[in-house]
Amino acid sequence: MTAAITPIIMPKWGLEMREGTISAWLVEEGADISVGMPIIDVETDKISNAVEAPDPGLLRRKVAREGETLPVKALLGVMADRAVSDAEIDAFIQAYEVPDVEGGGEEGAPAYQVVTVDGLRVRYARRGPEGGVPVVFLHGFGGDLNNWLFNLDAVAEGSPVIALDLPGHGESEARLPGAKLADLAAFVGRFLDAIGVKRAHFVGHSMGGAIAAKLAGTDAPRVASLTLVNSAGLGPEINMAYIDGFVSAASRRELKPVVELLFADPGLVSRQLLDDLLRYKRLDGVTGLLQALAASLFGAGKQADLPGRELGSIDVPLLVVWGAKDQVIPAGHAKSAPSRATVKVFDDAGHMAMMEKANEVNALIKRHVGGSGG
Fold first, then answer.
1. What is the DSSP letter of 350?
2. Tell me: the pLDDT tens digits for 128-168?
3. d(Cα 129, Cα 343) in Å, to the nearest integer?
4. How far is CA 34 from the centre of its chain?
5. Would you report the helix, strand and coil content of the chain in percent, each value rounded to 5?
6. Does pLDDT of 336 surpass 70?
7. Is the dihedral of CA 57, 63, 65, 68 positive or negative?
8. Which tens digit of pLDDT belongs to each residue from 229-278?
9. Fewest beta carbons within 10 Å, which of 39, 41, 49, 86?
10. Alpha helices for 166-228 (secondary structure H)
11. What's CA 364's distance to the chain center, in Å?
12. Helices 207-218 and 181-194 meet at what angle, rounded to 10?
């Protein structure tokens, strides 16, 4: 490979992605590309997103055509210095081979694993290098580990990563170990014991952030650092229209306007995303489970437990990330974080900041866990 040539490739967003469709090029050949610049829109069966440049350079060649569906790691375009000849670029494109990414995981490992904790089956995934303190991702109310589809592989470049479907969510068993934050936090601890993890960095979104904060309060030695993304547990207010709407929605027509509240850009809500959520909500026991969880956590129309406000007395490195356009939990709750916390609020993101500002959030997480020690 010529050192001065940088390929732009189809990213792998999430553990299940196999291909993506080119929606639109956002830059023209000859454009100077800076790190983080959106360069091409890609649609998957889960969500649409822009591929952002991981490296700077000059866009010399568009290889993928708009409307074309290509596998993960396929060559989309080429960046190169002006000194690189067209013949060298032609040779690079002709010689490029798409790496084999079948098997779902690293070196053919399965995409998901299953463990039974307290008689309850839990689906989880592990990625990244062996050894070191892992980064554990906890999703929010009604979510699953695929909420981190833009984050897991990026963070796994430098740290071992674990993501699970919390009890009653995703493909874990539709049963709760208890409906209080303390019950869920204790269960996460027992899950980690079951897979041999004694200490971890925790990244929690929404309800998952409150669970992580609760765990820090009850089992601080287990927590190497905390990253709270649009987190519950820092203030009492919550949009109950979202919670009640999500719990009660039984059709795509009913669910769509509810799920659109999660994003600053409602166009990110795809038909497949809605279908996946409806498939989950139609599982036996899920509606009652979500009702019980909502009644326990938000029963009086506000958050019942605020463990994030107790973090000031807990000596754990803390990163707080929010989207200013959050329509579920007010972004103003970020101000309740302890003064020692690193706080970042993105103006153009909503409740799903880890999706809408994935590159920026990933960089913040990697810097935070890298600087927090083990």
1. -
2. 998 899 999 999 999 999 999 889 988 998 999 999 999 99
3. 28
4. 24
5. 35, 25, 45
6. yes
7. negative
8. 999 999 999 999 999 999 999 999 999 999 999 999 998 888 888 999 99
9. 86
10. 181-194, 207-218
11. 13
12. 80
Q: Token match 């600053």: residue?
A: 264
In sign, the C-alpha dihedral spanning 325, 328, 332, 337 is negative
| Distance from the Cα of residue 14 to its chain's centroid | 9
In terms of C-beta density within 10 A (0-12 exposed, 13-18 middle, 19 or more buried), how is residue 159 classed? buried
**37, 52 in Cβ contact below 8 A?**
yes
**For 254, phi and psi rounded to 5 degrees?**
-75, -35
The Cα–Cα gap between 127 and 157 comes to 9
92 φ, ψ (degrees, to nearest 5): -65, -45
Token pair listed for 211: 């669970």
CB 322 within 8 A of CB 264: no
pLDDT, tens only, 30-52: 999 988 788 998 888 777 778 88
Cα–Cα distances (Å) from 317 to 14, 162, 343, in that order, read 27, 19, 12
Q: Are strands 75-80 and 57-62 parallel, antiparallel or unpaired?
A: antiparallel
- Nearest C-alpha neighbor of 133 from the set 225, 259, 215, 57: 225
Q: Is the CB of residue 59 less than 8 Å from the CB of residue 285?
A: no
The strand ranges marked E within the chain are 5-9, 19-25, 32-33, 38-43, 48-52, 57-62, 69-71, 75-80, 113-117, 120-127, 135-138, 161-164, 200-205, 223-229, 318-323, 342-346
DSSP secondary structure string for all residues of 45-72: SS-EEEEEPSS-EEEEEE-SPTT-EEET
SS (H, E, C) 84-98: CCHHHHHHHHHHCCC
Strands of the sheet with 69-71, listed across from one edge: 48-52, 38-43, 19-25, 69-71
CA distances from 253 to 43, 214, 260 (A): 22, 36, 12
319: closest CA among 351, 343, 290? 343
Q: Which amino acid is at 157?
A: E
- Count of CB atoms within 10 A of residue 96's CB? 17
